[in-house]
Amino acid sequence: MELNIPEFEGPLAQRGVGIIAPFDLALERELWRWTPLEVSLHLARTPFEPVAVSRAMAELVSDRRLITAATRDILHVEPEVVAYLCSSGSFVHGLAHEKALCDAIREAGAPDAVTTSGALLEALRALDLTRISVLTPYDGELTELLCDFLAEAGTDVVRSDYLGLGGGIWKVNYRTVAEHIIDSDTPASQAVFVSCTNLPTYDIITPLEQELGKPVLTANQLTIWACLGRMALPMTGPGQWLRGVFG
């Protein structure tokens, strides 16, 4: 019996992004919503640590040795860039530590490297933003360290707010996040940054940008945007100010 099977040129050529995530990440689905069809995300996680979300946890999940090992774990699928997907882990010790994390990823063999906090700084430069508001799900100490990181990079935090959560961040509902974003905003702020890759934000970005009339920048959005920029690919999904601007 002769089969009449049409010829296809597929599958679509895959382009990979390596993602190193903290052990508690629960928003993989949100990450995928930012990416075009030809991009695949390959995740590795840092080892579990029995601590609450805090400065201590940020320090543990950003240990350079762990980042190096996780990078090597995903190199066999040939990602074009590897991202350390963690806000607090990449700002907790300032600009030098953020750079050291990128260096560790490249030294482990990745073609290029991104961190979430580094992506934030890239976006601020790309959009010429120097005064922002900040919202985090963290405690006061970790939120202050984010403000210190931004100050070191030359960005003025005109208002900050935090939820004070020690865990379960991915369970926060959109209404709570949206209300805190609105409360964090001020006329002096050129944008609002929402920290933490485990805090859901995807579906509220567009309505909040329309309501506030300014960029609402979120951790997952910025990380994927910076990765795609290195691949000369546009970001999909919400974020009218960043869409079309390569990282």
Structure summary:
The termini are far apart.
Topology:
Layout: E1 15-21, H1 28-33, E2 39-45, H2 55-61, H3 64-74, E3 81-84, H4 87-91, H5 94-107, E4 113-115, H6 116-126, E5 131-136, H7 140-152, E6 156-162, H8 174-184, E7 191-194, H9 205-212, E8 216-218, H10 219-230
Parallel strand pairs: 1-2, 1-3, 3-4, 5-6, 5-7, 7-8
User: Taking all residues together, what is the mean pLDDT?
Assistant: 94
Main beta-sheet strand count, sense and barrel state:
4 strands, parallel
| Structural domain tally | 2
Proportion of helical residues: 25-40%
Rg of Cα set? 18 Å
Q: Could you tell me how far the N terminus lies from the C terminus, measured between alpha carbons in angstroms?
A: 54 Å
**Uncertain ranges:** none
Per DSSP E runs of 2 or more residues, the count of β-strands stands at 8
- Strand fraction equals 15-25%
Could you give the order of strands across the largest sheet?
Answer: 2-1-3-4
The level 1 CATH classification of the largest domain is Alpha Beta
Number of helices: 10
CATH architecture descriptor name of the largest domain = 3-Layer(aba) Sandwich
Helix/sheet category: alpha/beta
The H-and-E topology, N to C, reads as EHEHHEHHEHEHEHEHEH
Write down the oligomeric state: single chain
